[in-house]
Amino acid sequence: MMDAIYTLVDFLDGIDFDDLSDEVVDRTKRFILDTLGVAVAGTSAPGCRETLGVYSNWGGREEATVWLFGRRLPVPAAGLLNSLLVHARDFDDTFDESALHALATTLPPALVLGEREKVSGRDLITAVVSGVEVVVRLGLAIQRPLSWIRTATCGGFGAVAAAGKVLKLSKKEMLNAFGVMYSKTSGNAQCLLDGGLSKRLQPGFAVGDALQAVALAESGINGAKEVLEGAYGFFNLYEHGDYERERLIEEVDGHFHILDLSFKPYPSCRMTHATIQAILKLRDEYHIKPEEVESIHVAVSSMVKEMVGGDFVVRDNPQVDAQFSIPYTVAVALNKGDVFIEDFEEEVIRRRSEDWKPLIDRVAVEATDSLTPKDMKHSSVKIVLRDGRTYEAEEEALIGSPNLDMPWEMCVEKFRKCVSFSAKPLKDIAVNHLLDTIENLESLEDVSLLVKDLVV
Known about the structure:
Blueprint: H1 4-13, H2 22-42, H3 48-58, E1 64-65, E2 72-73, H4 75-87, H5 103-117, H6 121-141, H7 150-167, H8 171-182, H9 190-193, H10 198-218, H11 234-238, H12 245-249, H13 273-286, E3 293-300, H14 302-308, H15 318-323, H16 326-336, H17 346-355, H18 357-360, E4 363-367, E5 379-385, E6 390-395, H19 408-419, H20 428-439, H21 448-452
């Protein structure tokens, strides 16, 4: 039996823009808009300027643009930095079934190469759909809870697919690019547990490595052949052989997996969202005030408990600590009635960690055996008030998911709100032109014109 990577390469080789339904094209454009919006907000996030400074000091050939900042760098460096901007606020899309982000590793490589090669909007859309297909199929196949950060491990292969489609690699070159990428694949979950900013960088590392892998494959360098299912292939080495092969090689029948991604309404780990929704529902329905609360009990899956259910502690990078904390995001939701970017600024977090500590400490998170270990869609919340009243809510459908979708108008609203957090303000005329360009992306002859709207 041949390794499943060969089936994926054959599949990718056959994808053409004309194969994409109007629904797929529309949703891809919305995700591109969403991704560029959170990247604009990411320009003011911790670590982004510092990382840009490092790569700018190294310099190199001016091939592609770092969005908003306008610095032109070699393709791998520009791809890495743009991916960092996308993921810096943890506000980018998610694939809820496998706890990963897809556009952070597929749009940046496609667009930096698209800018250099001056490809069309149709080609950019096709590349993004192709990359997302690989990321999601790999994520679906994995059956284990998180140990690796799949946005990076699966995302690196998706980045290869997106970049390879832009460059129109042959099947042999694409196979070699996947093989070379496998030698670079990494992305651990320890940085998440320890609150490290490197968690934000891991998708960018994958993008930079993928762009190198594609260039090397074009030059004739090859790598592993049994990339996914060999004795030391990805699934056996990284996921202990616990995977479903059929999820990798299933027929498309017109349903591309970009239709299964979710938009994020809150800039925190997706694993906090079900609980945030439940808290907001109870707050609005029963007009609960924070000072009335005696205790809050939250029941989630074991993966969610491990990743975001611990005690809230402010460490070296408060933004990461807060974004990956159910107790903190519960306190925000209950106090404000919303959760947005301003709630994850360092000075705000440090102040609230003291002012809101009594409420934060009253939030208890436990894992329940009634949910599968890697479930992130469900949360059961019980609020007990000081006067003895008790209110409960359960969430099982996340806002922004395909069945609770965000239409174009809501995506535009989120985009405009994100723009207000840009380190380099965009003028209204540029924002409006960018919105119009993305809405009509399939008619754009040269995507470098899109990038020009992202330079201040």
